[in-house]
Amino acid sequence: MLELNVKKPFEIELREIESIETPKKNEVKIRVSYGGICGSDLSLFKGKFAHGKYPVRPGHELVGTIIECGEQSNYEVGTRVVILPNTYCGECEMCRNGRTNICRNKKSLGINMDGGFSEEFVISTKLILPIPDDLPDEKAVLIEPFAVVVSGFNKISIKKGQTVAVVGSGSIGMLAAALAAHLGANVTAIDINSKKLEMVKRVGDIRTVHPQEITDEDKFDIVIEAAGVKSSVEQAFQLIKPGGSMLAIGLAPEVTIPFTQFVRNDQSIHGTITYNFPDDYLKTIDYLRNPDLNVAPIVSKVVPLTDYQEAYDNALSGDFGKILLKF
Ligand SMILES: [Zn+2]
Ligand SMILES: [Zn+2]
After folding, report:
1. In angstroms, what is the span from residue 227 Cα to ligand 2's centroid?
2. Is there a shared CATH topology between the 2-147+275-326 domain and the 156-271 domain?
3. Domain spans of the chain?
4. Ligand 2 center to residue 282 CA distance, Å?
């Protein structure tokens, strides 16, 4: 069986491993069909995570089919599932309040425990969710990243006709732009990369601008920050209308914000991380089943696992939307 292995930062290999564990009690074995390469896979590859562990099998945006069940698993062979890549203990204060996304004992697949960029892997049934028959695998693989956006949107209420700016047109930014447009907002996408701006136009009726073209007149009811770079977060603050709000998804280490202006203008900022399982996943599946919501253009390429090097190089170039590995 083939699997990817990040030995240490900047060293990734595809290797053949002999055998794979059999699923115990409440575990199942998954045959992976698609895996999406995420910004966090690239951060792990570049050694940017303090909590990253090496060597590690990367990959957390995963869809596949159950091929073997532990005796207490209550699932059937042949069931197609999506993976929840963040563990939760179910016992800490956050979990008890339904906030599994900020579980104090959380571990992340593909970051500080083995992920699923492999032909097969074994996982607890606590971390899988069956997907409906009418949702093909190549679309279902977007559930995990899209759930990040859907979960964040729980904190802001986008109404028809509102103005929304999306800063950053990576996969998350494009998904946010698609959803905001779907909900009836007038969406402006901002990115330094013109290729990304061309891509985001395909998910809806979206105005696109380069950050340098932003004027003082550009103010928005809601600003969604999905670039996670100091300068972009700082610009995002300047784009919020008085009384408006910001949804912060991107992870910029440190920023300087105009605090007095922020308070005087009665603005709010909502930080958001991942999603709550299974609610946000179920909501995301409903969105993905809706033919009016066009997220297909977000996928730039589907690459066979054996061409992982090309897939990683493309993803690292920053010129592509979502790149999928096909197993
Ligand atoms: Zn991800
Ligand atoms: Zn917990």
Report:
1. 28
2. no
3. 2-147+275-326, 156-271
4. 20
d(CA 19, ligand 1 centre) in Å = 27
How far, in Å, is the centroid of ligand 1 from the Cα of 237? 25
Query: Which ligand has the minimum distance to the alpha carbon of residue 171?
Result: 1
Q: What is the pTM of this model?
A: 0.96
**What spacing in Å lies between the alpha carbon of 34 and ligand 2's midpoint?**
28
CATH homologous superfamily for the domain 156-271:
NAD(P)-binding Rossmann-like Domain (3.40.50.720)
| CATH architecture of the region 2-147+275-326 | Alpha-Beta Complex (3.90)
The residues whose Cβ lies within 5 A of ligand 1, an ion, are: 38
Beta-strand pair 61-69/27-37: antiparallel
Q: Are 30 and 120 in contact (CB under 8 A)?
A: yes
Residues having C-beta closer than 5 Å to ion ligand 2: 88-89, 92, 95, 103
Distance 49 CA to ligand 2 centre (A): 21
pLDDT at 239: 97
Express each pLDDT in 93-142 by its tens digit. Answer: 999 998 999 999 999 999 999 999 999 999 999 999 999 999 999 999 99
Q: Which ligand is nearest to the CA of 38?
A: 1
